[in-house]
Amino acid sequence: QKLPPHWTGVVYDGRRVQIARNTKISESRRGDLTGRLIDRFPANSNAAWIEGPNRAGEDSYGAFMKAPLSKYYVAIILPKSELKKSWLGSIWVVLVVSFLGLTTALLTLRYGRRLSEGTQSLINLARDIGTDKPFKTVDPNPIAEINLIADAMIDTAESLKRSHSERDRYEAELKESERRKDDGSDDGAPHQP
User: Fold this and answer.
1) Please, what's the b/e burial string for 22-53 (b: 16 or more CB within 10 A of its CB; e: otherwise)?
2) In terms of DSSP bridges, do strands 73-79 and 59-66 run parallel, antiparallel, or are they unpaired?
3) How far is it, in rounded angstroms, from Cα 4 to Cα 170?
4) How far is 29 from 99, CA to CA, in rounded Å?
5) What is residue 8's three-state secondary structure?
6) Predicted confidence (pLDDT) per residue in 96-131, tens digit
7) H helical segments located in the chain
8) For the sheet containing 47-53, what is the strand order?
9) Quick check: 103 and 30 in contact, CB under 8 A?
10) b (16+ CB within 10 A) / e for 54-75
C-alpha cells in the first residue's frame, strides 16, 4: 500500500485474476496492470523476477511471488526508467562520496608527509642540542607550529651554548686563579685572562 508513485502493486488469485492493486491508480489504468508479465510467470515457481513491458508498454521489471497455501500472487512492477533514475542518483552519490574520500586521503597524506618531515627535522635538531656539533637549521615548514617549536629549540640551543662558553671561561679563570695561588703569584687583585 505504501509504494512509490510509479511502482505498481497487484494481488492475483490462483487463477491469475487481479483482486487488489495500489489505491492510487487512476481509472484509466484499471485492468491488468502487469501487462503480459503475469503470463510469463512460471506456473511451478513460487517466485520470479521478470522483465518486459507493463500495461502501458513501458519496459519494466516485475517481482512476483506466489503464496504456497492460498496460491495468491503478489506482483510489484517497476518501470526501468524509474530504476535508472534511482541508479543515476546513486551513481552520483557514489561519485561524490568517492571524490570526497579521495580528496581527504590525498590531503591527509600531504599533511602527514609535511608533519613527518617537520618532526624529523625537530628530532635531528634536538639530538644536536648540547653537543659540540654545530646544529643544523631547520628548513621552513608549512606547518606553523613546527616552525615555532624549531625557533624555540634553536633559541634554547644558542642559550645553552652561551652558558657552556661562560662556564668554560669561568672554569678557566678559576683554574688560573688556583694555579697562581699555588705558585704564590696571586696578589688578590682580579686578573684579566
Assistant:
1) beeeeeeeeebbbbebbeebeeeeeebebebe
2) antiparallel
3) 91
4) 43
5) strand
6) 888 888 888 888 888 888 888 888 888 888 887 767
7) 80-128, 144-183
8) 18-21, 8-12, 73-79, 59-66, 47-53
9) no
10) bbeebebbbebebeeeeeebeb
At 122-158, the pLDDT tens digits run 888 888 776 767 666 677 877 888 888 888 888 888 8
Residue 8 CB burial class (10 angstroms; 0-12, 13-18, ≥19): buried
Cell numbers of 106, please?
A: 590525498
Q: Side-chain half-sphere of 53: how many Cα atoms within 13 Å?
A: 4
- For residue 59, which of 90, 37, 91 has the smallest C-alpha distance? 37
**pTM exceeds 0.85 for this model:** no
Other beta carbons less than 10 A from residue 92's beta carbon: 10
Decide: 76 and 9 in contact? Cβ < 8 Å: yes
| Alpha-carbon gap, residue 50 to 67, rounded angstroms | 17
The cell for 154 is: 634553536
Best CA proximity match to 75, nearest among 18, 6, 2: 18
- 6 CB burial (10 A radius; 0-12, 13-18, 19+): middle
Residue 86: all three cell numbers together: 534511482
36-42 — which CB contacts under 8 Å span 24+ positions? 37/62, 37/64, 37/75, 37/77, 38/12, 38/62, 38/64, 38/73, 38/75, 41/66, 41/73
